[in-house]
Amino acid sequence: MRLDNMLIAEGVAGPEKGGGVGAAANASAAAGAGDSAIEHSDYRAKLGQIRQIYHQELEKYEQACNEFTTHVMNLLREQSRTRPITPKEIERMVQIIHKKFSSIQMQLKQSTCEAVMILRSRFLDARRRRRNFSKQASEILNEYFYSNLSNPYPSEEEKEALARRCSITVNQVSNWFGNKRIRYKKNIGKAQEEANLYAAKKAAGEAGASPYSMSGTPGPMMSPPPGDESSMGGYGMPGMNGSGYSG
DNA sequence: CCCGATGATTCGGG
DNA sequence: CCCGAATCATCGGG
Q1: Which residues contact A129 (CB under 8 A, 6 or more apart)?
Q2: Which of A161, A166, A183, A241 is the most exposed place for a label (fewest CB within 10 A)?
């Protein structure tokens, strides 16, 4: 009976229509980008389709069940002319039929659940439908990162400020820094170019009168910049096949 | 179409 | 909870 609960929770079963603001929306909106409304409208449309089909099928089953029941009843009535048939017997018959049909309904519920699950992962999983940040947002984030290379761990307040400036969520800022740190470390050589680039940009912006202590480079404690551009050909990228599941 | 870049999620550890 | 690491899934340029 868990299937019923789930279908109700997803808004497939339960209230025929109306708001139907399910638990679907807020379930995995963790770091979802700002405009989640658009994606959700698509999601809702598909969900509505599923629901429609579900109810359609359900009704069909019910109708078939009723038809079959009356059919059997008629047969029994005819038989009752040649042999005695107790009402108990009839009731038993009806119960058997209903049980059979409800098991069929279970199958329908299960496949509907499956469809909903697929739909959820297809639309609500933020890994899909990923959008790159704007160029400007990347600028801001990179600027902070390379200006604080020795300690690229923004506090909560700083994250909020950055999030506001970039028009993204705090979570996304955290994600960005997490990715940036690990990827910087993984590839110092290339990142160094970026570092120089942003350092130059910053220097241009400050035009000389900067309060930085000029005791050499700030020396990032993460790893010493080797400045070695060669020997960064290919690190093993395994197959990464795109296992296509139809959608 | 391939492949690197990139944002998001998952997992293990403190 | 945050971090690093691995991984996933999409984007975007060639």
Answers
A1: A39, A123
A2: A241
